[in-house]
Amino acid sequence: METIKNYLDNMFNSLPRTEEISNLKNDIYENMQDKYQELKAKGKSENEAIGIVISEFGNIEEILDAFGISHEATNSNSSEAKEQLPEVTLEIANEYVRTKKTAGLFIGLGVVMCIMGAAMVTLIKAMMMYGIIKGNADSGYIIGVIIMFVLVAGGVALFVYTGFLLTPYNYLNEQFNISQYVKAQLSEEWSIKRPYTIVRLTIGICLCVISPIPVLLTNVVGERGDIAGFGTSLLLCVAAIGVYLIIGAGNIMGAYNCLLEIGDYTPAMKKSNKVIGIVASIIWPLATAVYLVLGFGFGLWHPGWIIFPIVGILFGIFSGVVEEISKK
Questions:
Q1: I need a surface site. Which of 40, 173, 212, 282 has the fewest CB within 10 A?
Q2: Is 128 within 8 Å of 139 (Cβ atoms)?
Q3: Cis peptide before 303 (omega within 30 of 0)
Q4: Model confidence over 22-60: pLDDT tens digits?
Q5: Alpha carbon distance, N-terminus to C-terminus of the chain
Q6: Which residue has the higher pLDDT, 200 or 58?
Q7: What is the mean pLDDT of the chain?
Q8: Among residues 263, 250, 313, 240, which one has the least CA distance to residue 283?
Q9: Contact 131, 271 (CB under 8 A)
Q10: 310 Cα distance to chain centroid
């Protein structure tokens, strides 16, 4: 029922917040609930019932006329602007979902390459110190740094390519027109894919949470301090897998939320997302630069990695505050 409620909220979002409109919205929501329960009683699945209820909703202007509510004032202010907004068809929507899925794959691989680059620095150095690979620690460090730069360069190339892939769909971050039929189809698709996406997201988060365990184990098992290099490398590998899963799931979730204008893509949230995006484009590269300075300048790859979870927590708090302010 949350899908129906979000859909109805979006339909009435552009209308004046009068008592008359509010009563109409509540009446329609009750009717949609009754219709949903009726379809469920007839043996329809949840996805089928939601799709039918939304597809039978009708045009908002027709509903206002049927209930004798004047919407001339609303139309006079927004009809011309609405006609100028880009139209999102089902074909465009499906293309956007596929592109976001591909973008999630490329961005995820790019992030994995960057993280694995940092892991190679500590891993190769530790392997040479323990005689697994012939050479000394200094040469191992240099080789690891060279590999890191190669992997980071590959990751950056994937980021740039992904940016070009998504450029044609930048208008979806603003306002656009999308028919109720297309939204109904997308709602049904998302209700099918949503459980799998949530599982993938959950696994990714759990892997990031448990990633420090290898470092803790190496500190317990090994008395020599340099064994921590293996633990740090394994930490980064586990975190890389977790981040890859999170990015892939997040991109799919973001695509459907954007098209359905729910979650982080309601009109109010789009405003806050701009602010959050600007801060994110500054804070994360800065955190990475600090980590590299700690690593190259002072050899503090461990525990320098702690900067990422700290920045993540602070950035999460900042994002939450901005979102609450936007809603109000």
A1: 282
A2: yes
A3: yes
A4: 777 778 778 888 888 888 888 887 777 777 777 776 656
A5: 25
A6: 200
A7: 77
A8: 313
A9: no
A10: 20
Are the C-beta atoms of 287 and 307 separated by less than 8 Å? yes
Dihedral, CA atoms, 191, 197, 201, 202, nearest 10 degrees?
70
- Rounded CA gap, 298 and 320, in Å? 34
With a cut of 50, say whether residue 80 has pLDDT above it: no
3-state secondary structure the chain: CHHHHHHHHHHHCCCCCCHHHHHHHHHHHHHHHHHHHHHHHCCCCHHHHHHHHHHCCCCHHHHHHHCCCCCHHHHHHHHHHHHHCCEECHHHHHHHHHHHHHHHHHHHHHHHHHHHHHHHHHHHHHHHHCCCCCCCHHHHHHHHHHHHHHHHHHHHHHHHHHHHHHHHHHHHHCCCEECHHHHHHHHHHHHHHHHHHHHHHHHHHHHHHHCCHHHHHHHHHCCCHHHHHHHHHHHHHHHHHHHHHHHHHHHHHHHHHHHHCCHHHCHHHHHHHHHHHHHHHHHHHHHHHHHHHHHHHHCCHHHHCCHHHHHHHHHHHHHHHHHHHHHC
Whole-structure pTM value:
0.62
Instruction: Give the pLDDT of residue 272.
Output: 65
- Phi, psi (deg, nearest 5) at residue 68: 70, 30
Tokens 């680059």 -> residue: 117
pLDDT confidence band for 81 (50 / 70 / 90)? very low
The tens digit of pLDDT for each residue in 226-282 reads 565 677 778 888 888 998 999 888 889 988 888 888 777 776 666 666 677 777 778
Residue 310's φ and ψ, nearest 5 degrees, are -65, -50
**Rounded CA gap, 20 and 314, in Å?**
43
Contact by Cβ (8 Å): 137, 124 = no
Q: Please state, in angstroms and rounded to a whole number, the distance separating the CA atoms of residues 38 and 49.
A: 9
